[in-house]
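Supplementary Text 2. Reproducibility record for the structural model of the 393-residue chain.

All settings were left at their defaults, and a single model was retained for analysis rather than an ensemble. We include the record here because the model underlies the residue-level annotations in Supplementary Table 4.
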Amino acid sequence: MTNKNWKPATKLVHGGTTRSPFGETSEALFLTQGFVYDSAEAAEARFLGDNSGYIYSRYANPTVSMFEQRMCDLENAEAARATSSGMAAVNSAIMACVKAGDHFVAPKALFGSCRYIIEKILPRYGVETTLIDGSNIEEWKAAIRPNTKGAFLESPTNPTLSVVDIQAVADLVHEVGGRLIVDNVFATAIWQSPLQLGADVVIYSATKHIDGQGRCLGGIVLSDEKWITEEFHDMFKHTGPSMSPFNAWVLLKGLETLDLRVKRQSETAAKIADLLSQSEKVSTLIYPGREDHPQADIVKKQMRGGSTMLAFDIAGGKEAAFKFSNALEIVSLSNNLGDAKSLITHPATTTHQSVAEEARLELGISDHTLRVSVGLEDQEDLLEDFSKALAAI
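Retained model, structure tokens:
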């Protein structure tokens, strides 16, 4: 049930819906491991691929398929596979692109676990890797080699919200026959469409904005039909990073309000950014959509809106950053993001704690850096909460 002419908000409510013979209004939840066949001959035909249908929920499940199709509708992607978590999506997408002897490129500015895969895991299996300044297109040009089979980037990045020119990087990677994987979590599909900008694969941690209410884990990998079926599916099928049908059902419910939530949260985030920018206690503020963003021209070119996220440095170091965080009454301390509840984290001691201090400082992550995920609370209440926290320093 999908009309390609529908706007995103409509696709998020109706896209991919498949009803059972009972004609239910809400999507059906198929909590089943396996499926039965009318005959031994039918089972044989199903396994040979001569007869369409489900075999085992590790491979595919009707509820999970609805989630995958709805995300395809939103992204204008040909195919997708839902995974158990965002990191399962990152890892499986990268691994499907490379083999021993290949080369892989990524920016230094990445979520700690993503950087660990590229910096630590890939070299164990004979894949050479190069980490660069992702915002510098000249470094991309210098890093890409004839055997570069893949590249990965976040835009905006976690946690400093720098922005990478997706189209420019895609063009460079395609010149050597590689594939570009883009993590679109911070922008969301509401504000950015990587596949339309030239990326080959887009991934999400559905745990974040797609669920949006801190309930469950999930991830998804979206690309063209050929790559998903010929390069990705068998590895996915045999290694088992599959999504739970229950989580898929929860995420389907989350998608119904994604457009409303992201737009409201981004509007409030912009107001909070304005407030913080006026304080002498804030030494640096980064928010996509502001004219003072370091890559403001790229933001205008590839994003339709700002973000629910912002990053800033508190003057006074770690002690001041902790004091500010502890003084907030509404905003909760948590390393998650994209939630209905506003959340704040200190990346140097949480999400990027595993990254060496020298590397963190190179990325602009210091002891006084804070990351905020803006929620759905009343805008005036949040502005007052941030004002009081600034006064407490």
